[in-house]
Amino acid sequence: MTARLTVLAGPTAVGKGTVAAFIRAHHPQVWLSVSATTRPARPQEVEGVHYHFVSDERFTEMVEQGDLLEWAVVHGRAKYGTPRRPVEEAVAAGRLPLLEIDLQGARQVRETMPTARFVFLAPPSFDDLVSRLTGRGTETAEEQATRLATAQGEMAAQSEFDHIIVNDDVERAAAELVSLMQSA
User: Please, what are the domains in the chain?
Assistant: First the structure.
């Protein structure tokens, strides 16, 4: 049985990583892709679980060798990408594969895997998104401003997605996403 890939995207700080972590912990039937990134690990992030942390040089090699399903420079700084082979293997094995990526990446996946299901994770409001970003304390004020400017454009892209899930409660949003993934 071949599974259908689900792509979860949304604006910065909407809680994509938090929803994905909840799914990882509570829904073992879902296979979560682990992205590669050139940014440094944040506190509590684990290599191979949250991301594959790689050098710029290694990331460039991965791009040149066609090893990434999608990739992008995010917020004008770090590079992020999805290793291709593990995703293709999960789909072929009939698992419930989930990519948690940014808008640029989702657009690239739509080009290469148009049969995927695309889900936009939205905040209850833009003010809530601002509070989440500033409240997590992981970026400088300059980085926050850049991310919020990016988020405004990302919010405008909701119509490009097959489904929209509002992240007003992590457990509820995760359950809705998993239910969607289990449907035809």
Answer: 6-182 (3.40.50.300)
